[in-house]
Automatic annotation (TrEMBL):
NCBIfam families: PRK13529.1 (NF010052)
Gene3D superfamilies: Malic enzyme, N-terminal domain, NAD(P)-binding Rossmann-like Domain
Source superkingdom: Eukaryota
Cofactor: Mn(2+)
Domain Malic enzyme NAD-binding: 313-565
Similarity field: Belongs to the malic enzymes family.
Species this protein is from: Loxostege sticticalis (Beet webworm moth)
Protein name: Malic enzyme
Pfam families: malic, Malic_M
Length: 653
């Protein structure tokens, strides 16, 4: 190994060093991870090129979704790769392929068929899939994400054709690391996983819930440019309590009731530990769509030990608070001047309430007073100590001592909230009477119907405007078409955590953060709120347009990267001088690369600035002493490792 790497150092010609790099890639994955951390620009194209021009030839080149370019292979490439004749003779540019794909999708009437088309495209030509998605976010996000992904999960038995990601079941307990080792990609940086118990507002969908981590990670790449090979979706199948699924012949998961209690907790413990053993301590672990009894406690248990966050609690909080911040510019009321009421008192509601209270504290209010202005109403009525069973533990900060109230309309009339936020999974729960009452409570009522998918939204955008005489500030978790009211068109915003988690992930990955402190979510909220223009507000939108999501995600990523150093959670040292350029260097390029042998279009060979051979030898020796140890058994070691690797690469590049 050492001689190979040393040869790499001494090698003056890129072409030759690539061959050596190839040997290293194949044989020493840990080195590759170190290499790609410090030379993000060098891959995937270059590493991919090394692979493809040396290993993959012929039909395999077309079958591999990462390498396939369909009819975009040039004649020279077809000849060089041994695929001449395997494709129709016409050569079509990537741009034209995107246009053709668009035409193909538009032919389908049903959104589920569009979803299936896009899944197949992702399975056969990854770069085309991501360029199509990134260039048409507003059009295709509702297909790969909410609302259609909800339908796809409900029909997952029909949709599931080719495996994507890992399925780890409760019966794999004791062997989870072995299963992770079956995933051949060594450079995974982000894992999004679910146990399928609360899929959107659709309830327990068991293993059918796999569509959610797959969809979330597609947005990691399409919106923030996290490289697709660095993303891994995982379904943790512990059974399902959904009787319909247990009887569904198409069901693809374990046919048993959910395992709960100690056995479940031990399973999740083992999973978290296996992930960092396989991929390193700073692997991003995103909890998605866990049910209320597990979501909060698991976050509390792991948040200081792993690079982890719960998207439904923290990502949702961040996007909702950004919306509330932007809304202050319309209502002319500070956050602390509002009475906020939630329908639903679960993960999303509590996440938003906690972060809103923090934002009010930053406006100069005490935490207790801030919490006092936030009310919650769940399936059993208003959260008050006087109701039967009292205030549930998970929402104890927001319980009041007033008389019990089981009628939501009456509660809205009595409490007179100025902001009403729906996270209840109950479609249509904001009835015309509730909305009219909001219109009476204040001049510019803020109304968020955040439950997903569309069928679960607490009200439609149309209903919100009609019942408040067009005075409301509205946002919804799933998209609604523009509303015509009283001769004016309103383009409402999508209050969805998709504005937050992709940028959060890119920032965290680029700095190798080992934990994600809560203040990062407030920072992300502020960054997002600052993106909202006066022209957006005039149209009725408190979020930037979906087509700006790539720019938004990048700006959030840079803000997160900055915070990562300030909060001492970054592990990439020394801090890059130009953080924005550093973050950019991690972004995936969905443009096809040329697969011609490098002498056609080789970049100039790097000038190796090695002072003396002895110097390089000693540096390398030091690095490999550290590499031989587990990658990140403690933070000091990570820092030391990072520093040494950086020294080596600064010599190399
Ligand atoms: N827009 C976004 O970015 C996000 C939206 N959500 C959506 O929010 C909804 C809730 O998610 P979680 O809080 O994670 O679920 P959860 O299960 O933790 O909480 C649901 C809450 O709704 C309450 N509820 C149920 N039926 C009710 C009824 N008839 N009346 C009043 N309250 C009722 C429950 O008591 C519970 O407090 C889901 O539909 C989900 O899709 C969640 C995360 C992000
Ligand atoms: C958007 C999201 O994370 C949810 O509805 O669960
Ligand atoms: Mg979710």
């Amino acid at each position: 190994m050492f001689s190979n790497i040393f040869r790499l150092f001494l090698c003056k010609k890129v072409k030759k060093s690539n061959k050596i790099l190839l040997e290293i890639i194949v044989n020493y994955p840990r080195f590759v991870r170190a290499f790609t951390i410090y030379c993000p620009n060098y891959q995937p194209e270059d590493v991919e090129h090394v692979y493809c021009s040396n290993l993959v030839r012929g039909i395999d080149h077309i079958k591999d979704p990462r390498l396939n370019k369909g009819l975009a292979f040039t004649l020279k490439e077809r000849q060089a790769l041994g695929i001449h004749g395997l494709l129709a003779s016409k050569i079509i540019s990537q741009e034209d392929q995107v246009g053709i794909a668009r035409l193909s999708i538009d032919r389908y009437k049903s959104n589920l068929n569009k979803y299936i088309f896009l899944t197949e495209l992702q399975d056969t030509n990854e770069k085309l899939f991501f360029s199509l998605l990134a260039d048409n976010i507003e059009k295709y996000m509702p297909i790969v994400y909410t609302p259609t992904v909800g339908l796809a999960c409900q029909r997952f038995g029909l949709v599931y054709k080719r495996p994507r990601g890992l399925f780890i079941t409760i019966h794999d307990k004791g062997h989870i690391l072995k299963i992770l080792n079956n995933w051949t990609e060594n450079d995974v940086r982000a894992i999004c996983f679910t146990d399928g118990e609360r899929i959107l507002g659709l309830g327990d969908l068991g293993a059918y819930g796999m569509g959610i981590p797959v969809g979330k990670l597609s947005l990691y790449t399409a919106l923030a440019g996290v490289k697709p090979h660095q993303c891994l979706p995982i379904m943790l199948d512990v059974g399902t309590d959904n009787q319909t699924l247990l009887e569904d012949p198409l069901y693809i998961g374990l046919r048993q009731k959910r395992v709960r209690g100690q056995q479940y907790n031990d399973f999740i413990d083992e999973f978290m530990e296996a992930c960092v053993t396989r991929y390193g301590k700073n692997t991003l672990l995103q909890f998605e769509d866990f049910a209320l009894p597990n979501a909060g406690p698991l976050l509390a248990k792991y948040r200081d030990r792993y690079c982890t966050f719960n998207d439904d609690i923290q990502g949702t909080a961040s996007v909702a608070v950004a919306g509330l911040m932007a809304a202050t510019r319309v209502t002319k009321k500070k956050m602390k001047e509002n009475i906020i009421m939630f329908l639903g008192a679960g993960s999303a509601a509590n996440g938003i309430a906690d972060l809103t209270a923090q934002a009010m504290v930053e406006e100069g209010m005490s935490l207790k007073d801030a919490q006092g202005q936030i009310y919650m109403f769940d399936v059993d009525g208003l959260l008050t100590s006087k109701r039967e069973g009292g205030v549930p533990e998970h929402a104890k900060n927001f319980g009041k001592d007033c008389e019990p109230e089981k009628n939501f309309e009456s509660a809205v009339a009595k409490i007179k909230p100025t902001c009403l936020i729906g996270c209840s999974t109950v479609g249509g729960a904001f009835t015309p009477n509730v909305l009219k009452q909001m219109g009476q409570n204040t001049e510019r009522p803020v109304i968020f119907a955040l439950s997903n998918p569309t069928s679960k939204a607490e009200c439609t955008a149309q209903a919100a405007y009609e019942n408040t005489e067009g005075r409301c500030v509205f946002a919804s978790g799933s998209p609604f078409p523009p509303v015509q009211y009283n001769g004016k068109q309103y383009k409402t915003g999508q209050g969805n955590n998709a504005y937050i988690f992709p940028g959060m992930a890119l920032g965290v990955i680029a700095t190798g953060a080992h934990t994600i402190p809560e203040t990062m979510f407030l920072g992300a909220a502020r960054t997002l709120a600052n993106f909202v223009l006066e022209s957006d507000l005039e149209k009725g939108r408190i979020y930037p347009s979906l087509n700006q999501l790539r720019e938004v995600s990048f700006t959030i990523a840079v803000a997160i990267a900055e915070m990562s150093y300030k909060l001492d959670t970054a592990t990439i040292f020394p801090k890059p001088k130009d953080l924005s350029a550093w973050v950019k260097s991690h972004i995936y390029n969905s443009t096809y690369s040329s697969y011609l042998p490098r002498f056609y279009d080789y970049p100039p060979a790097p000038d190796i600035k090695m002072k003396t051979i002895e110097e390089a030898y000693h540096t390398l020796k030091l690095v490999f002493t550290i590499i031989r140890r587990p990658l990140s058994d403690n933070r000091a070691n990570v820092k030391k490792f990072s520093l040494c690797t950086r020294i080596v690469f600064s010599i190399l590049i």
